[in-house]
Amino acid sequence: MARRSRLFNRVIRHICDRQVRSYRKTGGRRPATMRGIPVLLLTTRGRRTGLPRTRPVGYGRDGRRFVVIASNGGDDATPAWWLNLRDDPVAEIEVGGDGGLTVLTVRAVEATGEEYDRLWRTMSRRHPVYEKYKEMTRRRIPVVVLEPLDALPT
């Protein structure tokens, strides 16, 4: 897949910004999913600007950890949020639930080896669109584990 145009990227940023506002306003109830994948908000520190950058990201759970796939919709470009996390792995997530939003500080770790294989299988089995994204790109799609640094609410 070729890289997307600047106009396309601007439109996607605008849509993501609207999704972030809606997610926060509704306590994570809208949009609760994208393409059937549960959504959380991920806030990273911009690697060039140092400013906070928030994006809706599909996720799965692995025990108390959150698993996100840096697929960028199958694009050959690596998603900016993953580039930001590689520079500064500490981030904040907002996860919607019955009691509203839960905000957690997390540390991002890229899954490798057997853990990568296990998490990729689990996530792509739950959400087959990831296999389609894998076929669309020439890059290896990172599987990122977000490990909470805070205690999870009970």
Portion in beta strands: 25-35%
Major beta sheet summary: 6 strands, antiparallel, barrel
The secondary-structure class comes to alpha+beta
Total count of helical runs of at least 4 residues: 4
CA-CA gap between termini: 43 Å
How much helix is in the residues?
25-40%
Number of strands: 7
**Uncertain segments of ≥5 residues (pLDDT<50)?**
none
Output the helix-strand order. Answer: HEEEEHEEHHE
How would you state the average pLDDT, rounded? 90
Rg measurement, Å: 15 Å
Strand order of the largest sheet: 2-3-4-7-6-5
Overall, the morphology is globular
Topology:
Elements: H1 6-25, E1 33-34, E2 37-45, E3 52-62, E4 65-69, H2 80-87, E5 90-97, E6 100-110, H3 113-126, H4 129-136, E7 143-148
Antiparallel strand pairs: 1-2, 2-3, 2-5, 3-4, 4-7, 5-6, 6-7
Short description:
The protein has 154 residues and is α+β, with helices and mostly antiparallel strands.
What can you tell me about this protein's structure?
It is a single chain. The chain is built from 4 helices and 7 strands. The protein has 154 residues and is an alpha+beta fold. It has a 6-stranded antiparallel β-barrel with strand order 2-3-4-7-6-5. The longest helix has 20 residues, at 6-25. The radius of gyration is 15 Å and the shape is globular. It starts with 5 loop residues before the first helix and ends in a 6-residue tail after the last strand.
